[in-house]
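Work Package 4 report. The design task specified in the project plan requires that, given a folded chain encoded as structure tokens, an amino acid be chosen for each position. We show below one input record used in the internal validation round.
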């Protein structure tokens, strides 16, 4: 088992990760009858894409002593209707500016960014725009 999710009412859920006991809540977004006071489930999907990219890049970087600490991603989720779904996720990654990456390191990290399991698990109709700036 990965997690337990409890519906709290008013379009809010409370999730507990089994292994760590970490918890989070979700709310439906305001444009879909929710409070918008927490990540929505679709926000989590978009955010999971960026987190997964960083995890895969981080594994490869650690094996080669390539610094990544301080890298950040700006994530934009674009919704579509009929049916309501995520149409596009834009992940703009900014690598630390105080590191002088070699051309080989840049190529490796960009390639790793394209190979995360979340990216490969999303429906092919969902547009993924991933950029990495060094």
């Amino acid at each position: 088992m990965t997690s337990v999710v409890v519906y709290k009412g008013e379009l809010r859920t409370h999730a507990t990760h089994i292994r760590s006991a970490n918890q989070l809540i979700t709310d439906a977004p305001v444009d879909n009858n929710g409070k918008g006071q927490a990540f929505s489930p679709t926000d989590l999907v978009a955010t999971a894409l960026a987190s997964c990219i960083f995890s895969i890049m981080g594994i490869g970087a650690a094996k080669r002593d390539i610094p990544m600490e301080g890298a950040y991603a700006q994530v934009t989720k674009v919704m579509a209707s009929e049916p309501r779904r995520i149409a596009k996720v834009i992940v703009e990654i900014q690598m630390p500016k105080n590191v002088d990456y070699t051309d080989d390191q840049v190529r490796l990290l960009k390639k790793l960014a394209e190979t995360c399991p979340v990216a490969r698990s999303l429906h092919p109709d969902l547009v993924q725009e991933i950029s990495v700036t060094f």
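The chain has a mean pLDDT of 97. Validation will be extended to a larger panel in the next phase.
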